Amino acid sequence: MKNQANGIFPAVCPLDCPDTCGLLLYKEEGKIVKVTGNPEHPVTQGAICNKVRNMTERVYHPERVLYPLRRVGAKGEGNFERISWEEAVQEIASRFKDLIAAYGSESILPYSFYGNMGILSVDGMDRRFFNKLGSSILQQGICNAAGSSGFKYTMGFGGGTVPEDAAHAELFIVWGGNIVSTSMHMVPLIEKARKRGAKLIVIDVHKNRTGDRADWFIPLYPGTDGALALGIMHVLFERDLVNESFMAQYTLGHEELREHVKSYTPELVSSITGVPAEDIVKLAELYGESPSAYIHIGNGLQHHDNGGMTVRTISCLPALTGAWLKRGGGAFKSNGAYASLNSNALERPELRPNPDARVVSMNQLGEVLLELDPPIHALFVYCANPAVVAPDASRVDEGLRREDLFTVVHDLFLTDTAKYADIVLPAASNFETTDIYNSYWHTYVQLQEPIIPTVGESKGNVETFTLLSAAMGFEEDAFRETEEQMIRSALDYPDNPYLEGVTYDALKEQRFVKLNMEERIHYLDRLKTPSGKIELYCEALEEIGLPPLPTYIPLIEGYDGQRRPGKESKYPLMFISPPNHSFLNSTFANVKKLASLEKEPTLQIHPSDALHRHIADGDEVVVWNDRGEYRVRAAVLDKMLPGTVISQGLWWENEETGKPQRSNVLTPDRLADMGGGAVFFSTTVDVKRQ
Ligand SMILES: Nc1nc2c(c(=O)[nH]1)N[C@H]1C(S)=C(S)[C@@H](COP(=O)(O)OP(=O)(O)OC[C@H]3O[C@@H](n4cnc5c(=O)[nH]c(N)nc54)[C@H](O)[C@@H]3O)O[C@H]1N2
Ligand SMILES: Nc1nc2c(c(=O)[nH]1)N[C@H]1C(S)=C(S)[C@@H](COP(=O)(O)OP(=O)(O)OC[C@H]3O[C@@H](n4cnc5c(=O)[nH]c(N)nc54)[C@H](O)[C@@H]3O)O[C@H]1N2
Ligand code: SF4
Ligand SMILES: [Mo]
């Protein structure tokens, strides 16, 4: 395909988005000229977002890194000279060897996330390389770690209601997410259901694009969702809207829970959440009386100090009503676990000479680079842009600026992170490489093969880490495997019955292959919690110092449960910085067409908060706390409760204006209550006119 000048070729969207769309790439004279959805994809059915319709602007962007580069100016300045791959690889290998000899292999830290969701790219040859190297291990808690952990404490498994079933729900609750922007294929599915009378409720700290479409939008104070869920439980038990036989058969601890939630009266919960008591009762009744209620648990509500407990609590709701037994009912946090692959075969942990190597959190990169003892001396960043996306960005900058830190960045662009690199390696896009993709929402696995030759001298991750392995002198066969061999071994995984029938040959022939969802009939009978039941009472939580029953725990930095700032909240406003519609995290922030749709970063502020600060709509404002400051334009709107301000989008620094515009200069690097998750939204700030 890559050598054919013209034609229409199937492809997969590589971005960190639940929908993992099937694409069609139109080629003319050897170049991709158009990207559309593939109408044959059973779930995404030909519809794609505007971001990826503009993917050619990214693939052929004039600023794509085309050659390996070596830094010539100061760190962060962004001045580089062109070098060859041979030089780059040799320099990296010799620096790594020297560092290992002087300080040990744990002085090297990989830093990666899912800028390309390809399994071979981010969970494949790279892992083999760092395992064999014996580097420090990165704990990848930046995205859904707290919430996924919370869901698992309750359900034992990282999979819930799948889209084909959700389509049959009568009530959709989108809770702490923004599906219109972040999982757009849920929308037609809900709209179709609404035509036959289904309802959409959105619960969020601000009226996002999804809230705009809701039958009922419920605003609440950040980090108080756990209390709202407990209030719903209180009403469900009190009004006998629970399913006793379901609870008896499938749950552990419903009697304890019944007693426990007596104290979460609608009045108390209203005082915590800001949701009127009568609305809490109405919401519980709608939920309890719905023939089939589906809860879409977004990622936003778990980026908090209490994010794990919040998701654990919400995911208990369907067990009270028995919604899991209704077609379309239940809950979704992530469906990634249905498509679990053979990670040992992919990552080869047995290559690691030091299985007990230290584990460091990607959410504390600044701290790790500045304080860790013994120190990190080399950082290898790929498929991630930590200077923009990681919390406490000023500390991250300070760490990246360290003269004695050897930094390599493999990316398609000179991102804010790459500007700090000693060596930049040009990355190929996924349309230039072979990989497989599973989705954390739908149930199809897809194959991508190269559609165009690599742009410039760029190389995909597999090839890059294969080259580096050779330069390090790694001789195992694992470093010589082809993509096909890696895919075959990843799919050979009898431990996951959902993977039955998904083979390399089937993928070659069909492009998208459905998981064996027949297996889901056994979902409730084969739960992987210690008790095999849905754990309303969860002993394992006591082991990590948390209450075994769902409990509202106020934020460390945020409201204290009585609408007063909590003990570490020096500032009066809660600052929420969710993703925006036109970027994918910080990806596309450098694509003019998409950046111009978003215009500029803004701060949405409630009229009452704006008034006493003398801030008018359109004013330039400074947003600050002890960690840093952020200068943006105010948008005075009443889309949230007073006391909460919103700034959407992960923007790169603006070289033209020089205005600080990374929201993460304000966010804390504390870890959430579970899973080492990030707590971006448990942030307090103040705002003034510039
Ligand atoms: N267009 C676009 N799509 C994306 C992304 C993107 O950047 N842009 N990112 C991708 C990634 S990596 C992810 S993880 C997903 C995330 O997608 P979602 O699961 O939709 O999560 P977020 O967009 O992070 O959710 C943000 C919402 O949570 C709300 N929120 C914040 N705090 C609270 C709270 O305490 N309670 C409640 N109820 N709501 C709260 C915010 O107001 C915001 O509306 O989207 C993916 N898709
Ligand atoms: N304030 C705030 N911060 C947040 C969030 C938030 O809501 N608010 N959301 C958080 C969440 S949920 C997430 S998931 C993280 C996302 O954090 P990241 O995954 O770091 O986000 P991206 O900005 O998408 O950066 C991905 C990078 O990978 C590069 N890339 C793409 N394909 C390839 C490839 O094949 N090879 C290589 N080597 N590089 C490639 C892209 O060019 C891009 O620069 O951000 C987190 N940060
Ligand atoms: S970003 Fe999401 S919606 Fe857009 S094309 Fe990719 S998978 Fe589809
Ligand atoms: Mo994410």
TrEMBL record:
Keyword annotations of the record: Iron, Iron-sulfur, Metal-binding, Molybdenum, Oxidoreductase
Transmembrane regions listed in the UniProt entry: none
Cofactor(s) required for function per UniProt: Mo-bis(molybdopterin guanine dinucleotide)
Gene3D superfamilies: 2.40.40.20, 3.40.50.740, ADC-like domains, Dimethylsulfoxide Reductase, domain 2, Formate dehydrogenase/DMSO reductase
PROSITE patterns from the UniProt entry: 4FE4S_MOW_BIS_MGD, MOLYBDOPTERIN_PROK_2
Record Pfam families: Molybdop_Fe4S4, Molybdopterin, Molydop_binding
Domain 4Fe-4S Mo/W bis-MGD-type: 6-63
CDD domains recorded: MopB_3, MopB_CT_3
Lineage: superkingdom: Bacteria
Family indicated by similarity: Belongs to the prokaryotic molybdopterin-containing oxidoreductase family.
Protein name: Anaerobic selenocysteine-containing dehydrogenase
Species: Paenibacillus shirakamiensis
